[in-house]
Amino acid sequence: MFEYVPKTEYTPVKEELEKIIRKARLFLRQKYGITFRFRLIGSGNRHLIMRDTSGNKGYDFDYNLILPYKPEQKPKQLNEYFRLAFNYAVQEMAYKCPEDSTTVLTIKVVDQKHKKIAHSCDFAIIYYPYDDTDDGYFYIKNWKNGRYTFEFRQLAEGAESKLDELKEYSGWWSRIKDEYKKLKNTNKQNKCSFELYLESINNVYDHINRENERKKNNGVIVLNQAFKF
Protein backbone atom coordinates (compact mmCIF):
# COMPACT_ATOMS: atom_id res chain seq x y z
CA MET A 1 0.00 0.00 0.00
CA PHE A 2 1.39 3.38 -1.02
CA GLU A 3 1.36 6.45 1.20
CA TYR A 4 2.56 10.01 0.73
CA VAL A 5 5.93 10.86 2.29
CA PRO A 6 5.85 14.03 4.42
CA LYS A 7 7.62 17.02 2.91
CA THR A 8 9.65 17.43 6.11
CA GLU A 9 11.10 13.96 5.51
CA TYR A 10 11.91 14.07 1.80
CA THR A 11 13.11 17.69 1.51
CA PRO A 12 16.52 17.10 3.21
CA VAL A 13 17.00 14.04 0.96
CA LYS A 14 16.23 16.10 -2.15
CA GLU A 15 18.72 18.78 -1.04
CA GLU A 16 21.40 16.14 -0.46
CA LEU A 17 20.76 14.60 -3.89
CA GLU A 18 21.19 17.95 -5.60
CA LYS A 19 24.51 18.45 -3.81
CA ILE A 20 25.59 15.06 -5.21
CA ILE A 21 24.49 16.12 -8.70
CA ARG A 22 26.50 19.34 -8.48
CA LYS A 23 29.56 17.44 -7.26
CA ALA A 24 29.24 15.00 -10.18
CA ARG A 25 28.83 17.91 -12.59
CA LEU A 26 32.01 19.57 -11.33
CA PHE A 27 33.87 16.26 -11.77
CA LEU A 28 32.64 15.92 -15.36
CA ARG A 29 33.48 19.52 -16.23
CA GLN A 30 37.01 19.35 -14.83
CA LYS A 31 37.89 15.88 -16.12
CA TYR A 32 36.04 15.62 -19.45
CA GLY A 33 34.83 19.13 -20.27
CA ILE A 34 31.20 17.98 -20.01
CA THR A 35 28.49 20.05 -18.38
CA PHE A 36 24.74 19.67 -17.94
CA ARG A 37 21.79 21.13 -16.12
CA PHE A 38 19.37 19.05 -14.10
CA ARG A 39 15.64 18.92 -13.59
CA LEU A 40 13.50 17.01 -11.11
CA ILE A 41 10.72 15.48 -13.21
CA GLY A 42 7.31 13.88 -12.91
CA SER A 43 5.63 13.21 -9.59
CA GLY A 44 8.63 14.38 -7.56
CA ASN A 45 8.52 17.77 -9.23
CA ARG A 46 4.90 18.07 -8.09
CA HIS A 47 5.63 16.98 -4.51
CA LEU A 48 3.87 13.64 -4.98
CA ILE A 49 6.50 11.52 -3.24
CA MET A 50 5.15 8.11 -2.23
CA ARG A 51 6.47 4.90 -0.72
CA ASP A 52 5.18 1.36 -0.56
CA THR A 53 4.60 0.54 3.10
CA SER A 54 4.27 -3.17 2.29
CA GLY A 55 7.47 -3.38 0.21
CA ASN A 56 11.18 -2.73 0.60
CA LYS A 57 11.84 -0.07 -2.05
CA GLY A 58 11.26 3.09 -0.03
CA TYR A 59 10.64 6.20 -2.12
CA ASP A 60 12.47 7.58 -5.12
CA PHE A 61 13.30 10.68 -7.14
CA ASP A 62 13.78 11.06 -10.90
CA TYR A 63 16.10 13.61 -12.47
CA ASN A 64 16.86 14.42 -16.08
CA LEU A 65 20.52 15.39 -16.59
CA ILE A 66 20.24 17.63 -19.64
CA LEU A 67 23.21 18.04 -21.96
CA PRO A 68 23.32 21.39 -23.83
CA TYR A 69 23.61 19.73 -27.26
CA LYS A 70 24.11 16.39 -28.95
CA PRO A 71 27.31 15.00 -27.37
CA GLU A 72 30.43 14.15 -29.31
CA GLN A 73 31.01 11.02 -27.22
CA LYS A 74 29.50 7.66 -28.06
CA PRO A 75 26.59 6.79 -25.71
CA LYS A 76 28.53 3.96 -24.02
CA GLN A 77 31.50 6.19 -23.29
CA LEU A 78 29.31 9.05 -22.09
CA ASN A 79 27.35 6.74 -19.81
CA GLU A 80 30.62 5.51 -18.31
CA TYR A 81 31.80 9.07 -17.68
CA PHE A 82 28.59 9.83 -15.79
CA ARG A 83 28.84 6.58 -13.84
CA LEU A 84 32.39 7.48 -12.76
CA ALA A 85 31.26 11.00 -11.82
CA PHE A 86 28.48 9.76 -9.54
CA ASN A 87 30.72 7.07 -8.14
CA TYR A 88 33.07 9.88 -7.12
CA ALA A 89 30.24 12.10 -5.84
CA VAL A 90 28.85 9.50 -3.39
CA GLN A 91 32.19 8.52 -1.87
CA GLU A 92 32.10 8.44 1.95
CA MET A 93 28.31 8.73 1.87
CA ALA A 94 25.53 6.27 2.66
CA TYR A 95 24.66 5.91 -1.03
CA LYS A 96 25.70 2.81 -2.90
CA CYS A 97 27.72 3.22 -6.11
CA PRO A 98 25.52 3.91 -9.13
CA GLU A 99 23.82 0.97 -10.80
CA ASP A 100 23.48 1.01 -14.57
CA SER A 101 19.97 -0.04 -15.60
CA THR A 102 18.26 0.09 -18.99
CA THR A 103 17.55 3.83 -19.11
CA VAL A 104 19.00 5.37 -15.93
CA LEU A 105 21.82 5.39 -13.42
CA THR A 106 20.52 4.70 -9.90
CA ILE A 107 21.92 5.51 -6.48
CA LYS A 108 20.25 4.30 -3.30
CA VAL A 109 20.51 4.26 0.47
CA VAL A 110 19.90 0.85 2.05
CA ASP A 111 18.55 0.51 5.58
CA GLN A 112 20.69 -2.45 6.67
CA LYS A 113 18.84 -2.90 9.96
CA HIS A 114 15.48 -3.43 8.25
CA LYS A 115 16.92 -4.92 5.03
CA LYS A 116 15.22 -2.46 2.69
CA ILE A 117 15.89 0.56 0.51
CA ALA A 118 15.28 3.81 2.39
CA HIS A 119 15.26 5.95 -0.76
CA SER A 120 16.80 6.05 -4.23
CA CYS A 121 17.30 8.33 -7.19
CA ASP A 122 17.29 7.66 -10.94
CA PHE A 123 19.30 9.81 -13.35
CA ALA A 124 18.49 9.84 -17.08
CA ILE A 125 21.14 11.37 -19.36
CA ILE A 126 19.35 13.27 -22.12
CA TYR A 127 19.58 15.96 -24.76
CA TYR A 128 16.91 17.81 -26.72
CA PRO A 129 17.21 17.76 -30.52
CA TYR A 130 16.36 21.48 -30.65
CA ASP A 131 15.17 22.99 -27.37
CA ASP A 132 13.02 22.28 -24.31
CA THR A 133 9.85 23.13 -26.18
CA ASP A 134 10.29 20.26 -28.61
CA ASP A 135 8.05 17.21 -28.41
CA GLY A 136 10.67 14.81 -27.09
CA TYR A 137 14.29 14.10 -26.27
CA PHE A 138 17.08 11.56 -26.74
CA TYR A 139 18.23 9.42 -23.82
CA ILE A 140 20.93 6.78 -23.36
CA LYS A 141 19.63 3.22 -23.48
CA ASN A 142 21.61 0.25 -22.18
CA TRP A 143 20.58 -2.86 -24.12
CA LYS A 144 22.24 -5.11 -21.52
CA ASN A 145 24.42 -6.80 -24.13
CA GLY A 146 27.27 -4.31 -24.17
CA ARG A 147 25.46 -2.02 -26.61
CA TYR A 148 24.39 1.54 -25.79
CA THR A 149 22.40 3.84 -28.06
CA PHE A 150 20.65 7.21 -28.07
CA GLU A 151 16.90 6.60 -28.30
CA PHE A 152 14.12 9.13 -28.84
CA ARG A 153 11.33 9.46 -26.29
CA GLN A 154 8.12 11.23 -27.22
CA LEU A 155 6.76 13.58 -24.58
CA ALA A 156 3.16 13.13 -23.49
CA GLU A 157 0.92 15.32 -25.58
CA GLY A 158 -0.85 18.16 -23.85
CA ALA A 159 -0.15 17.19 -20.22
CA GLU A 160 0.85 20.71 -19.17
CA SER A 161 -2.00 22.38 -21.07
CA LYS A 162 -4.47 19.97 -19.44
CA LEU A 163 -2.98 20.80 -16.05
CA ASP A 164 -3.49 24.51 -16.73
CA GLU A 165 -7.15 23.89 -17.63
CA LEU A 166 -7.71 21.82 -14.48
CA LYS A 167 -6.57 24.72 -12.31
CA GLU A 168 -9.86 26.44 -13.11
CA TYR A 169 -11.79 23.83 -11.10
CA SER A 170 -12.14 23.68 -7.34
CA GLY A 171 -10.34 20.75 -5.73
CA TRP A 172 -8.40 19.88 -8.90
CA TRP A 173 -5.14 19.16 -7.07
CA SER A 174 -6.76 16.92 -4.45
CA ARG A 175 -8.34 14.92 -7.25
CA ILE A 176 -4.99 14.45 -8.99
CA LYS A 177 -3.38 13.35 -5.72
CA ASP A 178 -6.17 10.85 -5.07
CA GLU A 179 -6.01 9.52 -8.63
CA TYR A 180 -2.23 9.21 -8.51
CA LYS A 181 -2.40 7.29 -5.24
CA LYS A 182 -5.06 4.97 -6.69
CA LEU A 183 -2.93 4.29 -9.77
CA LYS A 184 0.13 3.59 -7.64
CA ASN A 185 -1.81 1.05 -5.61
CA THR A 186 -3.23 -0.71 -8.68
CA ASN A 187 -0.08 -0.64 -10.81
CA LYS A 188 0.11 -4.20 -12.14
CA GLN A 189 2.31 -3.36 -15.15
CA ASN A 190 5.19 -1.83 -13.17
CA LYS A 191 4.76 1.57 -14.79
CA CYS A 192 7.19 4.19 -13.54
CA SER A 193 6.03 7.06 -11.32
CA PHE A 194 6.35 9.57 -14.16
CA GLU A 195 3.99 7.56 -16.39
CA LEU A 196 1.45 7.21 -13.57
CA TYR A 197 1.62 10.93 -12.85
CA LEU A 198 0.80 11.78 -16.49
CA GLU A 199 -1.95 9.17 -16.46
CA SER A 200 -3.49 10.72 -13.34
CA ILE A 201 -3.65 14.13 -15.09
CA ASN A 202 -5.33 12.61 -18.15
CA ASN A 203 -7.82 10.65 -16.03
CA VAL A 204 -8.88 13.64 -13.91
CA TYR A 205 -9.12 15.80 -17.03
CA ASP A 206 -11.41 13.23 -18.67
CA HIS A 207 -13.49 12.80 -15.48
CA ILE A 208 -14.12 16.55 -15.19
CA ASN A 209 -15.01 16.85 -18.87
CA ARG A 210 -17.54 14.02 -18.53
CA GLU A 211 -19.02 15.65 -15.44
CA ASN A 212 -19.37 18.95 -17.29
CA GLU A 213 -21.00 17.18 -20.23
CA ARG A 214 -23.52 15.47 -17.93
CA LYS A 215 -24.37 18.79 -16.26
CA LYS A 216 -24.83 20.37 -19.66
CA ASN A 217 -27.10 17.57 -20.86
CA ASN A 218 -29.13 17.59 -17.64
CA GLY A 219 -29.66 21.31 -18.07
CA VAL A 220 -31.07 20.73 -21.56
CA ILE A 221 -33.37 18.02 -20.26
CA VAL A 222 -34.72 20.23 -17.48
CA LEU A 223 -35.28 23.09 -19.93
CA ASN A 224 -37.17 20.84 -22.37
CA GLN A 225 -39.34 19.42 -19.59
CA ALA A 226 -40.28 22.94 -18.48
CA PHE A 227 -41.93 23.60 -21.84
CA LYS A 228 -43.97 20.39 -21.95
CA PHE A 229 -47.78 20.79 -22.36
CATH architecture label name of the largest domain: 2-Layer Sandwich
| Terminus-to-terminus distance | 57 Å
Tally of helical runs:
6
Number of strands: 9
Global structural class: alpha+beta
Within the CATH hierarchy, at the fold level, what is the topology of the largest domain?
Beta Polymerase, domain 2
User: What is the mean pLDDT?
Assistant: 89
CATH class of the largest domain: Alpha Beta
Q: What this model shows, in words?
A:
There is one protein chain. With 229 residues, this protein is α+β, with helices and mostly antiparallel strands. It has two domains: 155 residues, 2-Layer Sandwich (Beta Polymerase, domain 2); 73 residues. Helices cover 44% and strands 24% of the residues. The chain has six helices and nine strands. The strands form two sheets. Strands 2, 4, 5, 6, 7, 8 and 9 form a seven-stranded mixed beta sheet that branches. The protein has a two-stranded antiparallel sheet with strand order 1-3. Strand 8 and strand 9 form a beta hairpin. The longest helix has 34 residues. It is globular and about 70 Å long. The C terminus is likely disordered.
